Amino acid sequence: QAANLQMKEKLMGLNLNFSSLEENHEEVLEGLQPHANLRWLRIWSYNGKHLPSWMMKNRLHCFLPNLLRIEIEGADCQLTHLCSFGRLPLLQHLLLRELNSVEYIEEDEGDALVTGE
């Protein structure tokens, strides 16, 4: 049954521990998009290669504008790309630990160099 976290407007924090889940980490996380009122998010032992669409492509600040704290940890994490955290207006704490496969962090759209006349 679906968790339907988008409808849980009083949920302030979400601790997602993937250590006991064997596979489908990406699919599970994609379906766990929380309500925009969420204040803290912790993703632990995630071994997916990609973060969910609601976190990527400069969407995180749109879907979760009230985040104060984000923690992403994973000893066996396979993430190669991380989302941008720079556009979260209220972010006070960011912890990225044991993400040894990360090769790229998205640029904020507003930070891109503009060239031309």
UniProtKB/TrEMBL annotation:
It comes from the Eukaryota. It comes from Opuntia streptacantha. This is R13L1/DRL21-like LRR repeat region domain-containing protein. Coiled coil: none annotated. Residues 2-98 form the R13L1/DRL21-like LRR repeat region domain. SUPFAM superfamilies: L domain-like.
